[in-house]
Structures are given as C-alpha cells and as structure tokens.
Write a structure and sequence with these properties.
Layout lengths: L1 E9 L11 E3 L13 E3 L3 H13 L6 E2 L8 E11 L8 H9 L6 E9 L11 E10 L12 E3 L5 H9 L3 E4 L14 E13 L2 E8 L6 H14 L4 H10 L14 E7 L13
Length: 277
C-alpha cells in the first residue's frame, strides 16, 4: 500500500463544497425500503475520488484538510489517499498529470507526492490560512467577479486592520461561529489576522489559525467590513468577542469571496507561494 499527498486548487463556484453529500431525488424512484432514491451532489471530494479511481483502478477514499463550504475556493487544499499500487519508479508529476486528465476544468492537482502511511490531512495540520477578498469600487468587477465580494463604498482599511489585530490570540470565538457549528468547544487560536490593500480597488482579509469554526472567517470578514464602513469600531469587535454572542458580531459574508490559501504540516519547508498572512 502507498499513501499520497495531493495539493489541490479549485474554483468552488459550481460545487456544493468539498465533502461528498447527496439529497433525496423522488424523480429517481424509491429504494428497496420505499424511501426516495438519492442523487449525489457535485462536490470536490467526489470529483477527485472519481478521477483518482480512474488512475489507480480501485476505489479510494480521498480525505481533505478543510471541508470548504459551497462556493468557497481553494488555492492550496491538502488531501491524501491510499492505494495498493505504489507506482514505484513513476515520477510524482506523472501521477498529478494522470489525475488532472480525469478532472473537470475547475479542479487542478498542483502536486502529488508519496508520503508516510500515517499522514492525516486533518489531524497532522498545524494551521491553515484563509483570505477573504473585497472589490472596493463603484465599478463592479468583471473577470474575477466569482472570487471577490463587491463593496460599492470606500472602506477605511487601516481601521479594519486595527480591529483585525483585536481578533488575534487564543480565545473563545462563540460570537464568530454559525449556529449549529457542532463543535465541542469554540476556543481557537488565531495566529494572525490582517487587512491589507494591495491595490486601490482590492482589500484582503487574511486569517490564519490552528482551527476554524463554521463560517468563522466569513463572520470575521463581515465584522471587519462593518468597521471599514464606520458602523462598528475596533472596541466593538473586542466587545463582541467578550460577549460570546453571535448577534454582537457582523454579518456572514457570501462564500464566493473566501479562499483557502494554505495548510501547514510538520516538515514543510515553507508556506506555499501566495499564502498571504
């Protein structure tokens, strides 16, 4: 048996998120128990497993580091699978090329390397980084409109950054988690939270942490957007954190502005290019 680590990028626009899922489809009839048959939704995990299976010629379970939601993108998602064919002597780039030949146009395997048998994309992950992108201009975006959230009015990005620094540290992020997050604890360690303006019409919100709660980055982004608009202050952000009350934080921004930038593991030489904060 051989274990492989994949680095994947994808445009999440047309996917129902990373994780495999299905829904009742009465039009397909009923199963042997009389329940409506189910149809598989289009997910990144399912598409990747289908492509890998075509290459290794056996069923595989592809596990990913982050279960990105519907519409969320990834520049550097980490995944892994085990197969009986260890492809000894075959260059790693050949494996990536073979998988890519069977993938849809909105997913790319950037690398495929042999790793140790116990590699766990979730359990071994030290930290991850996300970026939320804002397009700040009267003119709406065109070519990258599926990857940014359009904001018509100008924003005070320096005040947003001041508020972002209040979010850093290990604390209870209950106020920045969606209801029904399903986690035993809402304590997380945010390693960095920064707001930058790489060009006049673009603002980036970069957040890295040892783990994230459901919609956490999108709520952080929505809260910092309110600061940029002057509807909240940095002190309000601190107060929201201390309150543990979701109603005290800002709105949950749309999924399409969010991208998984990187995931870090023991032994990694450096953070991936374009990783952000």
């Amino acid at each position: 048996m051989a274990r492989y680590r994949l680095t994947i990028a994808y445009d999440g626009t047309s996917f129902h998120g990373w994780q495999k899922q299905s829904r009742p489809a009465p039009e397909l009839g009923v199963d042997e128990h009389g329940a409506p048959k189910r149809e598989h939704l289009r997910t990144v995990q399912q598409a990747l497993e289908d492509a890998v299976r075509e290459v290794v010629r056996e069923p595989v379970d592809v596990k990913g580091a982050s279960r990105t939601d519907s519409g969320v993108h990834a520049w550097h998602q980490t995944a892994a699978f085990t197969a009986s064919d260890d492809r000894r002597g075959a260059p790693d780039e050949r494996l990536a090329q073979a998988i890519n030949a069977n993938l849809p146009d909105d997913i790319v395997v950037r690398s495929a390397v042999r790793t140790h048998d116990g590699f766990d994309p979730i359990g071994d992950c030290i930290c991850k980084g996300y970026r939320y992108s804002l397009h700040v201009a009267h003119r709406r975006p065109l070519w990258d409109r599926a990857f940014v959230r359009h904001v018509w009015e100008d924003l005070d990005h320096e005040r947003m950054h001041e508020a972002a620094l209040r979010i850093e540290g290990e604390r209870d992020f209950a106020a920045f988690a969606a209801a029904g997050h399903g986690r035993e604890t809402t304590v997380r360690n945010v390693l960095s939270c920064a707001v930058t303006r790489p060009e006049p019409e673009r603002i980036w919100i970069d957040v890295s942490a040892d783990g994230f709660l459901w919609n956490m980055v999108r709520i952080i982004a929505g809260t910092l957007l309110e600061v940029g608009r002057g509807k909240m202050s940095p002190d309000d952000v601190s107060a929201a954190l201390e309150s543990l009350d979701r109603r005290k934080a800002g709105p949950t921004l749309e999924a399409h502005g969010l991208c998984l930038q990187w995931a870090s593991y023991p032994g990694d030489a450096e953070r991936p290019e374009g990783a952000g904060a």
